[in-house]
Write a structure and sequence with these properties.
Layout (H helix, E strand, L loop, with lengths): L4 E3 L17 H11 L8 E2 L6 H4 L5 H8 L5 H7 L5 H24 L1 E4 L20 H11 L6 E5 L6 H6 L5 E2 L16 E5 L4 E8 L12 E5 L5 H18 L4 E5 L17 H17 L4 E4 L8 H20 L3
Parallel strand pairs: 1-2, 1-3, 3-10, 4-7, 4-9, 7-8, 9-10
Antiparallel strand pairs: 5-6, 6-8
The chain binds zinc ion.
Length: 330
């Protein structure tokens, strides 16, 4: 039995037909976890869809009304980049409910994993980049509303910038204050880091600079990575961003957005991490959180490997690593 809970529903499947987004990945992860005895059926909790009130903690009345009455404009539907349907709306409400449950579980057990979610390109008033509802932001605002947390930190390791997250939690004005640099020997690629102040939610995004979205609203810390960066450089930047973030801010909860798309075989990514390197990435986030006693909620975000099985492996590894780290007595 795992020392934490996995949140999953067969209804996480996104009814989008043939698409670069492998909607079947959630079901395949669930099957692999059970088949390989990484998890048992009792490790899973089934989420309920978030309520409209929960969704409205982040999204505008106008946008939610358009979604529930199917009155998005053709342009708004196109911006989503997934075919709109009532079932799709249900899947996103469910993913948000899953992240609420995962956040609550994390506060209880130290870590909680939503085997889904991570829809970090959703804005308060519109969806884009396959993301309709920002499940992680909904979970944070719900935990705050319930008085369970005061502050949170998002650690977004998807290859794409967390533009929705940055817009939702926009803090004080961006500054150009650089991160303290890591040693030149570990970093030969010219990555760039931007830093801004945050209010009650501190946002960190490590992403490929030369990739979607074209406009990247400022996160509290943005690490704009050059194309083709590999394991060692990536891990050095992540370590640096986490240390810098946690020097500036004390979160009651870390929301780790564990995208599988920094992988070298990803069709929508241009970084060059290996499966082993992505495992080390997970390990770093979990070790830092555990050492400081900060609970971590995990969500999955993107993953478009040429072989879907690689995406499934990367996501399953996140759970294997969490099991190794959080099973140890502290
Ligand atoms: Zn992505």
């Amino acid at each position: 039995m795992l020392p934490f809970k996995l949140i999953y529903s067969d209804d996480y499947y996104l009814p989008i037909g043939p698409h670069v987004f492998p909607a079947e990945k959630y079901g395949r992860i669930h099957t692999r976890l059970l088949e390989n005895k990484i998890a048992e059926p009792s490790d899973f909790l089934t989420p309920q869809p978030a309520s409209d009130q929960d969704i409205l903690l982040v999204h505008t009345h106008e946008y939610v009304h358009k979604l529930t009455t199917r009155t998005l404009s053709p342009q708004e539907e196109m911006q989503l980049e997934v075919p709109f349907s009532e079932e799709l709306v249900h899947a996103f409400w469910l993913a948000a409910g899953g992240s609420i449950l995962a956040a609550g579980s994390a506060l209880k057990d130290g870590v909680g994993v939503n085997v889904g979610g991570g829809f970090h390109h959703a804005f308060p008033d519109h969806g884009e980049g396959f993301c309709m509802i920002h499940d992680v932001a909904v979970a944070i605002r719900r935990m705050q509303k319930d008085g369970k947390i005061r502050t949170a930190m998002t650690v977004d390791c998807d290859v794409h910038h967390g533009n929705g997250t940055a817009a939702i939690f926009a803090g004080a004005k961006a500054s150009t204050q650089p991160l303290p640099s890591v040693s030149a020997s570990t970093l030969n690629a010219p990555g760039k880091a931007r830093s801004a102040k945050a209010d009650d939610v501190f946002t960190i995004s490590l992403h490929q600079a030369n990739n979607y979205p074209a406009y990247k609203p400022p996160s509290s810390i943005d690490v704009d990575l050059p194309d083709g960066i590999g394991d060692d450089d990536y891990l050095a930047w992540l370590d640096n961003a986490l240390s810098s973030g946690l020097r500036q801010f004390e979160p009651d909860l870390i929301c780790y957005i564990a995208g599988a798309d920094p992988y070298k075989e990803d069709q929508l990514g241009g970084l060059a991490l290996t499966i082993e390197g992505l495992k080390k990435r997970d390990e770093l986030v979990f070790k830092v959180a555990k050492a400081r006693g900060i609970p971590v909620m995990v969500s999955y975000a993107g993953g478009y490997a040429r072989k879907v099985e690689d995406t499934v492996t990367i996501h399953c590894n996140t759970i294997i690593v969490a099991k190794e780290i959080f099973a140890k007595l502290s």
